[in-house]
């Protein structure tokens, strides 16, 4: 009999989160940026890490002042909103940022509200912090309007409302009026998870512009997607200084290593070059979306670096048929749909060739209504 550790009752039998890490030629399942750092950026990161290494006998800057300053400057250029370092919080991925938010603003007797289908990690942050987790369904086209959000909030007085924009796995961005209505209604905090913000289409706004006047608003971002830095683990939140101070209370001491701070600061110096790759991915996304629709496949409008597509008679069978052709996509979210990450032009060509074969198989697609 193997040892049965005395794990918390509510965690018994739970599986750790994660997509299968399969060794497949074309991996389009975790919304990574397919472009590795350029040789110039990789060299600069190496030099920054070496410089930080000379001081590794010391604890890192607990408040990551240099990095937060640079993130504020980057956001000013990206969104036109003037921000101070005191409005920025950084941690190991926006997953850790979100864990801080749930630790500070959730807790026993408190509720977090989100709108499904959405990112499945929110439920785990709630579980870990003993916060009750409630979801309300989005409309059938996966959009979300202010009436639905406000009604759900009035029904439950949540301490945390999570609005994901663009939403994962649907790619749907929210109109600003929805975020504004949530902030006006909230008795707790409103979190807008903007992990994919840099991929949004022209004219689609960021909630950053609502920060002035809404002290209960927290916007989260990450360097994992647009900055092609998933392996370095750097996420951040933008909010009023009082909210940032609350997050500082629940972080572990020295949570952000000196190496991480140096690497992220260096990548920010290369933001323009990286934004060029983001533009390529946005074009590839729009092309792929048109291609899918031309073939009679339904595809949800996307402001992110992935597309939700369907509708399959059997989601798992379609996922397996693509995998058999060397293409790994994600089985996530609503039944009958699959999510594909936009890859390099070569990845996307391989996906199109595989899908072309799969959709012609008998009984693969759901009969149209
Ligand atoms: C990928 C993703 C994140 C980013 O997670 P990191 O911890 O920063 O890598 C956050 N939110 C959503 C909805 C995501 O899809």
Provide structural commentary.
With 369 residues, this protein is an alpha/beta fold. The chain folds into 2 domains: 9-30 and 277-358, Aspartate Aminotransferase, domain 1; 39-273, Aspartate Aminotransferase, domain 2. Helix content is 39%, strand content 14%. It contains 11 helices and 12 strands. The protein has helices at residues 39-53, 65-79, 93-105, 121-128, 146-156, 176-185, 241-250, 258-269, 271-294, 315-324, 345-359; strands at 26-27, 88-91, 111-116, 132-137, 160-164, 189-193, 217-222, 235-238, 298-299, 306-310, 327-328, 338-341. The strands form 3 sheets. A 7-stranded mixed sheet has the order 2-8-7-6-5-3-4, with helices on both faces. A 3-stranded antiparallel sheet has the order 9-10-12. The longest helix is centred in the C-terminal third of the chain and has 24 residues, at 271-294. Residues 31, 93-95, 119, 164, 168, 193, 195, 222, 224-225, 230, 235 line the site of pyridoxal-5'-phosphate.
